[in-house]
Amino acid sequence: MKITEHLKVLTHFAIRLTGETVVYCDPFHIREAPRDGKLILITHEHFDHLSPEDIDKVAAPEALVVVPASCREAALSAGLNPDKIVTMEPGEEKKFGRISVKAVPAYNINKDFHRRERGWLGYVVTMNGLRYYLAGDTDDTPDAREVTCDVAVVPVGGTYTMTAREAAALVNAIRPGAAVPAHYGDIVGSRADAEEFCSLLEAGIECDFCRE
Asked: 48 near 98, Cβ under 8 Å?
């Protein structure tokens, strides 16, 4: 079985993890309404990552929604249930049943769309006996290079995040077993960016698009 077996990139940076539980990250432009997600991870407050209508489509009634601490007010303004919101700070780790989530700083170093001081996040989700790094909107930063993971899902579309070449440099530095390109084909970036990213990965790192 591939180590990406339980991971699917739905659109943009909308990710679905299955197995021990069902986890979504940044649901966006979700077509159906499975409402099966027990944990919803939101990386930051931009509309293509914090989308209340899409959260509603994927969240089970008992779902918790994890947001950066700096985004709590934005989450409340979006109409999310305050009793279901869980906040995390960069570097913090929390347990949710059998899985754990570690918050990783996500920010730009050569552009101004995602400033470090905003406290926005990526996440390392440990479940199914694997560590999944869901990088969020980030560049190739020192914090990202400290991540240890089995599967890395990274943005490759450029403009607001890393380019394909920059994303490959990050992945080659942290050396997961598999890497998955995301954040392309919707608002920014194209399939060509994802293909370039895959072509630049070093031997031993599997590239999987994880799309239907």
From this structure: no
